[in-house]
Amino acid sequence: MSIIDISEVKPGSHVTLNYRLSLADGTEIVNTFADRPATLLLGVGQLSPPLENILIGLKVGHHSTFQLEPGVAFGQRNPDLIQRISLKTLRDNAVIGESFNPGDLIEFNAPDGGRYAGVLKEVNDSSALFDFNHPLAGQAVAFEVQIIGIL
């Protein structure tokens, strides 16, 4: 019989925690402190890798706030990820229906069977302009965490 060391967060851990993610100006993006804790499996994309890396090594009961410089948590904005696609491509590949409005976050089926998403910036008679950057790319954020349990 082996003993599993769950005294600290490791890659692949299931972590129950409260967390708050906010912009540098205090605008709150997500806050589990006000509702109920989240349980996340590290390494499967439920948090961005830089945010997951912050959790590695933390112990049950740890509670602090980490300030991340612009672009650290969700990457820098990449102008190559702003792309124009034809309306036909949009209609053939989008997961939602026929109605598209600027500001919509639209999911697409990827060739490998996965999905990816972009924010519709503008649409005209023949094409649509999308921003495939993460909506928080290039932003400074505060990441407050309170570790409740580790499995």
UniProtKB/TrEMBL annotation:
Annotated ranges, domain PPIase FKBP-type: 12-85
EC supergroup of this enzyme:
isomerase
Q: Give an example GO molecular function.
A: peptidyl-prolyl cis-trans isomerase activity
**Classification via InterPro entries:** PPIase_dom_sf, PPIase_FKBP_dom, SlpA/SlyD-like_ins_sf
Does the record's keyword annotation contain Plastid? no
Enumerate the Pfam families for this protein. Answer: FKBP_C
| Superkingdom of the organism of origin | Bacteria
Tell me which UniProt keywords the record has, alphabetically: Isomerase, Rotamase
Q: What is its EC number?
A: 5.2.1.8
Catalytic reaction equation(s): [protein]-peptidylproline (omega=180) = [protein]-peptidylproline (omega=0)
For this protein, the record's PANTHER family field holds: FKBP-TYPE 16 KDA PEPTIDYL-PROLYL CIS-TRANS ISOMERASE, FKBP-TYPE PEPTIDYL-PROLYL CIS-TRANS ISOMERASE SLYD
Family statement drawn from the similarity comment of this UniProt entry: Belongs to the FKBP-type PPIase family.
What is the designated name of this protein?
Peptidyl-prolyl cis-trans isomerase
Q: Which gene encodes it?
A: fkpB
